[in-house]
Amino acid sequence: MELKKRLKSILVLLLFTGFTYAQTIIRVDRGSAAGNPDGSSWAQAYPGLSQALTLANSTAGDVQIWVKGNRAYAPTLGNDRSLSFVINRANITLAGGFVGTETGFNQRNPDLNPTILSGNIGTPATATILNRKIKIT
Predict the structure, then answer these.
(1) Which of 8, 16, 49, 111 has the most CB atoms around its CB within 10 Å?
(2) What is the tally of structural domains in the chain?
């Protein structure tokens, strides 16, 4: 009888463990003034999407990147036009439409807060500028 109780307890523990997992959320806000951003909250949001992608690509498990809307994001904060956005593994969700106060994924509104991934790197007046834009929803 004692063995049945132990097996039942182990089975219940395994079932609950199998249904719970941690998901990493990384926040991005081009207007972030965080001194040492880590993406863990809106107050500590990364100012660049490439920083968040670098972290997401090296983080195990499911990762969501929440990107503040009404802004355009280029692959660099500088002028290096050889850079691009890179997602090199599965289980990364890139989502825009956030205001910057949300605590849940379903609180975002991409229609009201469009988020743009832009190839507009360098001086906008330059004739050879790369200018490709993608709206993320």
Answers:
(1) 49
(2) 1
